[in-house]
Amino acid sequence: MSVTSRYREAWEGFWREAPGGPGEVLWDADPALTAELHLPLLTPHLLDAGLPLVDLGCGNGTQTRFLAGRFPHVVGADLAAAALDHARRADPAGRAAYRQLNAADKGETQALHAELGDANVYLRGVLHQCDPDDRQPLADGIATLVGRRGRALLVELSEAARPVLGSLAQGPSGPPPKLATVFRHGIAPGEVADDAVPRYLRSAGLSVLASGRAPLTTTESGPDGTTVRLPSLWLVAGRED
């Protein structure tokens, strides 16, 4: 079984069992706390806001539907067919399109680029969830999708998130329910060094145009009842003219 096959099966199992309501999974935070805050980081660097936008790793489509109200053509893409089932059910009006995609597969990203042309890309918390062998191929897939004129915004857990997650997982009562569900399906977040993220992008032929730090909001609460916000870094990448 390949690394990608194991990874796909883990995500299919997770999404088949996931509840359908908003905020029921760890990262399904309200767009007002996620995509709406991230868009101003991307917008100044867009060469063409009219390009299609791919929400890569869209899951149940919460952010995709928000983005569909702000870009003319939005495609929610995910590895797991079960995730896309959730996304389509939550979008009966068809505000966005949805596509099963292994973004670490060169042929699949090339096929989507051939269909869409250059695209802007949004992904939140995807790279650190990949198995290590898939991280550079994922960055290569992002580069394929953006082409010459697209831009990509990545929001990824930073190294500083590890002790926060460790503290949650090792609490007296064990990990809180939503985090425990992620672990149970073998999707424990992997540590990615902060300086590795731009290296993956540069190796894929992209330039890092801007970067910074901002918390990644979850739907989980800590022992004190406050929302867990994980330290993260963000990067805007694309090809420079």
UniProtKB/TrEMBL annotation:
InterPro entries reported in the protein's UniProt record: Methyltransf_25, SAM-dependent_MTases_sf
Species whose genome carries this gene: Streptomyces lasalocidi
Entry protein name: Methyltransferase domain-containing protein
Pfam families to which the protein is assigned, alphabetical: Methyltransf_25
Residues annotated as domain Methyltransferase: 54-146
Keywords: Methyltransferase, Transferase
Key word Methyltransferase present: yes
Gene Ontology terms describing biological process: methylation
One GO molecular-function entry: methyltransferase activity
